[in-house]
Write a structure and sequence with these properties.
single chain; mainly alpha; 2 domains; 0% strand
Length: 361
């Protein structure tokens, strides 16, 4: 301390840097802040707390408005409620199968049909089963069932290759095969099958089909009954269900819901926990009716376009659609279809004494 009472300045060593102006101001500011400390209970305490806070500088305001490094995507950062960062685009799951996938299936079936035709011509060229003309092949059970079986298999093989590339899942996963659900509900499904069979028997009594229908003529072909029996309980229900309840039914339900969403401007229903689409009740009913009408029309030629068989086919198809939608399992409708055909063929087997008296059909 100097003689006049002022604090003595520290000596500066030779070659040492002189304190900068900012450091000197910081020391003076700290000294002034220390002098302005208010002791609790002092007369100036209320005045110290009543002083207004300093206004934020523009730089501080900009810093406060900057987005935090780990800020939530949904956190609003402005007065208007808009997020500071744009929300990431959420891709809604594509509902499969839709009408576009049904068109792809039709194209695959068309290619398979062309290959099937080539194979049939090769068989005719070599006289397979003693047949060398197309006219005779159209009425021969080996060619008709053989060509149909090859068509089914080629279409299935192509579908198992193509659709996994589009859906990023296997064909049967996309079609909701779900065999476990069919096994859990097997008793109810068998009861449903019995109901369909009973309705078919009643319909045959009240509205009998005409004689000499194409299916009757095919049964009377030597050796055809057992081939039709085996084909009708295996290939036919399996592949028909893939087409009608695997592709057509869900595609129509999705189309009906899509049109309703566009007209009412409502959002699509969320998929289930496995990513499969959910449909409205109106869409499922409409799709089931259209699917059943198409299913019955496809079999109309075999039954001579009779009203009775047509109506029972519509009703049976509605039951199959219900089984598919209720259990969310394509395997369920396949099980009902196969068991229903088995009961019909068994009835014919008993009525004709082992297909020996086909005139009793």
């Amino acid at each position: 301390m100097n003689h006049d009472g002022t604090p003595e300045q520290p000596a500066t060593l030779p070659g040492a840097p002189e304190p900068c102006l900012s450091e000197t101001r910081s020391i003076d500011s700290a000294t002034e802040d220390s002098r302005s400390i208010v002791v609790p209970g002092s007369p100036s305490e209320s005045e110290a707390f009543s002083e207004p806070l300093p206004e934020a500088t523009p730089a501080a305001t900009e810093t406060a408005n900057e987005p935090l490094l780990f800020q939530s995507w949904t956190e609003a950062g402005t007065d208007s409620g808009q997020a500071l960062w744009p929300h990431p685009a959420v891709s809604r799951a594509v509902r499969v199968p839709h009408m576009g996938h049904l068109v792809i299936l039709g194209l695959l079936a068309l290619v398979a049909l062309l290959v099937d035709g080539v194979l049939a011509q090769i068989a005719l060229h070599f006289g397979l089963y003693g047949i060398s003309t197309t006219e005779k092949a159209l009425t021969d059970i080996h060619y008709t069932l053989g060509s149909m079986g090859i068509l089914y298999l080629l279409t299935l093989a192509a579908s198992m290759l193509v659709f996994p590339l589009i859906w990023h899942k296997s064909l049967f996963a996309g079609l909701q095969w779900n065999g476990a659900a069919a096994m859990r509900n097997r008793q109810r499904l068998l009861a449903l099958t019995a109901a369909c069979f009973l309705l078919a028997v009643i319909s045959g009594s009240l509205l009998p089909s005409p004689d000499d229908t194409p299916i009757d003529k095919m049964f009377r072909t030597p050796g055809a009954a057992w081939l039709l029996f085996g084909f009708g309980v295996t290939f036919a229900p399996f592949f028909e269900e893939i087409v009608f309840r695997g592709f057509l039914l869900p595609a129509l339900a999705t189309a009906f819901d899509w049109m309703g969403e566009r007209m009412s401007r409502r959002s699509a229903m969320e998929p289930d926990d496995r990513g499969h689409p959910n449909w409205s009740l109106a869409a499922m009913i409409s799709a089931s009716v259209f699917t059943s009408l198409i299913f019955a029309l496809m079999h109309a030629e075999q039954t001579g376009k009779a009203v009775g068989p047509f109506l029972i086919l519509v009703v049976v198809s509605l039951f199959l659609c219900w089984a598919r939608l209720r259990t969310r399992s394509l395997a369920a409708s396949v099980l009902v279809h196969a068991c229903y055909n088995f009961m019909l063929f068994s009835l014919m087997l008993v009525g004709t004494q082992g297909f020996q008296h086909l005139n009793r059909m």
